[in-house]
Amino acid sequence: MLTRRTLLSRSAAVAGASLISPFSGFGPAYAQAASPIFRFGVVSDPQYAPVPPRGSRFYSHSLWKLSEAIADFNEQEIEFVVTLGDIIDRHWESYLHILPVYEELNVDNFFVLGNHDYDVAGDYLDAVERVTGLERAYYDFTGGGHRFLVLDGNEISLFANAEGTENHAIARERLSAMEASGAVNAQTWNGGISDEQFTWIEQQIRQATDADERVIVMGHYPIYPKDVHNMWDDERLVALFAAHDNVVLYMNGHNHAGNYGEVGGTHYVNFKGMVETADTTAYATLEVWEDRIEMLGKGVEVSRTLAI
């Protein structure tokens, strides 16, 4: 099994260790294994802010919820924890409160950035990646015969790019075209990816195929089933993943209610938002086996068995 001693190097695109596997591919031994190949933790949408609750969102409660989740993760044999975006709800100072909680983790921590992570004063937009330890908001890491792709669904958006920038103009044009076509996800609080990032995703999947690796993709925005919260590039990403039988899971947040779908052999899991509960929580541990992924939900998060 992949252990902490195998975490030897850092990805060129993220301030977090790459998972270096002591084996490659999958053999019959794993089908007979009594324990999973590896486990990892998932948190989605803490959306912390030091403000009073509004409706079903209890922003300040995410500090104790996240702290309890991390204490639980530290008791488990897991390799890393990923947060699927919206670390904060708003205001730059919110980062100063919640990021120290992650320092209590005994394993590596990976961030996906969400739309609310850019709800800061304009002068701070360019510092969001830096404060979360990222050199670039989309990146990859590998381990346990798997390649993990972290997507940046904010790359082409109105909120992550200052007015007057090229990506802001592209986002305005793309959103206008989607609105004209009646797309349900033509929303200002969604975003998309560049052609450059899409090409990078294709290349990563091809490299994973050549290396006999399965692929798990992590994003903030759902892409399937069709939903008002979906990334603007949902259809072309679903088509890409369906064309490669080694893409086994796409996981995301953003839609706090959660959701699930499957198409072309890829599971699409929308994790529930941690911010949405007053006195309970929402997070999960995923166990990766040769023939399935066991999703063990805590609090309001559901448990699922995802057959591979």
Please write the string of helix (H) and strand (E) elements. EEHEHEHEHEEHHEHEEEEEE
Separation of the first and last Cα atoms: 19 Å
What's the count of strands?
14
The largest β sheet comes out as: 6 strands, mixed
Low-confidence stretches: 1-31
SS strand fraction: 15-25%
CATH-assigned homologous superfamily: Metallo-dependent phosphatases
Rg of Cα set: 18 Å
Q: What would the principal axes of the Cα set say about the shape?
A: globular
Helix percentage range: 10-25%
CATH topology: Purple Acid Phosphatase, chain A, domain 2
Strand order of the largest sheet: 5-4-3-12-13-14
Number of domain modules: 1
At CATH level 2, the architecture is 4-Layer Sandwich
> Which CATH class?
Alpha Beta
Structure summary:
The chain has helices at 28-31, 62-74, 93-102, 128-131, 166-181, 195-210, 234-242; strands spanning 9-10, 17-18, 38-43, 80-84, 108-112, 139-143, 146-150, 214-218, 247-252, 259-263, 266-270, 282-288, 292-299, 304-307. By secondary structure, the protein is α/β, with parallel strands linked by helices.
Structure commentary:
By secondary structure, this protein is of the alpha/beta class. The protein has one domain (4-21, 28-307): Metallo-dependent phosphatases (Purple Acid Phosphatase, chain A, domain 2, 4-Layer Sandwich), CATH 3.60.21.10. 23% of the residues lie in helices and 23% in strands. The protein has 7 helices and 14 strands. The strands form 3 sheets. Strands 5-4-3-12-13-14 form a 6-stranded mixed sheet.
